[in-house]
Structure formats: structure tokens, C-alpha cells
């Protein structure tokens, strides 16, 4: 489990391709690597990956074919920045909202508005996922716990603060890029339950 509070953006040093998977080599800080062992879970752009090897300050992850198909990890190139969060430990402060690291889909960046007073990103989302997006609700974007801004028929707006931009790779996004989206699990359960009850009662 994760909190959606990204701890660092780390450089992708190498990608080794094998049948059905890619192995990522990621440079991490000594603080992030401390106590990290093979088998541990780490969120990479919001995707829960298992550590396969730790070599000094370099950490290795195997990314399976299905994960590559569903997430933006398939689009990464050498030297790209990855949002990193280690898994939640007992007693940790939860500053965002609970994330599983299981990405539901990707959203396309459709507009970026940057002025002296704001930094807004607008994304487009497939219709079936818009049912779970609500104004002021939670959403995981590249592993970041964010609050949903204005919602329209095809997507929603994110209002980003300087701290988020400094600590994550969201500041590096351009129009046309894709971000990983994890829907808030509680919202999904509530919406699906209400829809099922209404359907059983013949109410549309």
C-alpha cells in the first residue's frame, strides 16, 4: 500500500529488454535505498513493482508485459524521471490517500496552463472511468495523491502547487503525454454499489 506522497523523482539509468518484460535500473538516494531488499514493493509512477536487486544506490525492477501495456512505463526512455514512493509502513503518516499501486488506466494530457499564479494540467480520460471522478475527490496521477479540480464530460483539471511540481515529474509533462491513473478505491466501490442497486430496482 502507498500514500500517494511521492518521496523523490529518480532517474532511469538503463532498460534491459527480455522476452515478455523489461528490467529497469533506477538511481535512488541513500535514504530511499536504506533497508530496501529484493522482494520489497516500490511505486514507480504509481505502479507497484517488486525490487529484484539492489546494488549500492541502484535498484532493479522487472516490468511485465501486461504492466507495460496498461501503464506509461512502456513509454519511458533513458534519463527520464520516475516518481518513487516506498511502501507504507506501520505508524507512517498518511498525508495523501491510500493507493494500491494498481493502475486502472492512462489519461492523456490535453492542456497545460502555467502563469505566475497557477499551474494547471487538464487530462482526458476514457468515459468508463469518468464515473469515478468527482470535483474535490481523490485520484492517483503518476503515483501522486491529488485533488480533482473542475470536471467536464471528457476529463478533469489538476491544480498543482510548487511543492508537488518540485518533487515529482508532473512538471515535465507536455501536451500529448500520458499519465497513470489510479481511481480512489472507496469511490469506485460506492459508485459500483449504487449502480448495481439501481439496476436491480430497474432504475436507470
UniProtKB/TrEMBL annotation:
Known catalytic reactions: 2 6,7-dimethyl-8-(1-D-ribityl)lumazine + H(+) = 5-amino-6-(D-ribitylamino)uracil + riboflavin
Keyword hit for NAD: no
Lumazine-binding repeat positions: 1-97, 98-194
Pathway: Cofactor biosynthesis; riboflavin biosynthesis; riboflavin from 2-hydroxy-3-oxobutyl phosphate and 5-amino-6-(D-ribitylamino)uracil: step 2/2
Domain of life: Bacteria
GO term, biological process aspect, one: riboflavin biosynthetic process
A Pfam family assignment: Lum_binding
GO terms, molecular function: riboflavin synthase activity
KW Phosphoprotein (keyword) present: no
Keywords: Repeat, Riboflavin biosynthesis, Transferase
Coiled-coil ranges (or none): none
E.C. numbers: 2.5.1.9
GO cellular component: cytosol
Domain Lumazine-binding intervals: 1-97, 98-194
Functional summary from the UniProt entry: Catalyzes the dismutation of two molecules of 6,7-dimethyl-8-ribityllumazine, resulting in the formation of riboflavin and 5-amino-6-(D-ribitylamino)uracil.
Cross-referenced NCBIfam families: PRK09289.1, PRK13020.1, ribE
Name recorded for this polypeptide: Riboflavin synthase
Species per Swiss-Prot/TrEMBL record: Shewanella denitrificans (strain OS217 / ATCC BAA-1090 / DSM 15013)
Amino acid at each position: 500500500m502507498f500514500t500517494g506522497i511521492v518521496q523523490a523523482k529518480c532517474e532511469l539509468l538503463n532498460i534491459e529488454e527480455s522476452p515478455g518484460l523489461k528490467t529497469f535500473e533506477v538511481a535512488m538516494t541513500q535514504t530511499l535505498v536504506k533497508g530496501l531488499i529484493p522482494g520489497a514493493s516500490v511505486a514507480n509512477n504509481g505502479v507497484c513493482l517488486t525490487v529484484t536487486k539492489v546494488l549500492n544506490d541502484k535498484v532493479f525492477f522487472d516490468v511485465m508485459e501486461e504492466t507495460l501495456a496498461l501503464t506509461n512505463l512502456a513509454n519511458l526512455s533513458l534519463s527520464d524521471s520516475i516518481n518513487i514512493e516506498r511502501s507504507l509502513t506501520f505508524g507512517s503518516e498518511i498525508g495523501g490517500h491510500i493507493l494500491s499501486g494498481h493502475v486502472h488506466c492512462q489519461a492523456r494530457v490535453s492542456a497545460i496552463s502555467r502563469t505566475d499564479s497557477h499551474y494547471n494540467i487538464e487530462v482526458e480520460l476514457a468515459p468508463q472511468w469518468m464515473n469515478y471522478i468527482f470535483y474535490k475527490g481523490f485520484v492517483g496521477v503518476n503515483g501522486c495523491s491529488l485533488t480533482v479540480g473542475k470536471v467536464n464530460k471528457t476529463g478533469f483539471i489538476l491544480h498543482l502547487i510548487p511543492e508537488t511540481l518540485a518533487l515529482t515529474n508532473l512538471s515535465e509533462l507536455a501536451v500529448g503525454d500520458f499519465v497513470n491513473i489510479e481511481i480512489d478505491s472507496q469511490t469506485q466501490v460506492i459508485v459500483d454499489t449504487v449502480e448495481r442497486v439501481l439496476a436491480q430496482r430497474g432504475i436507470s
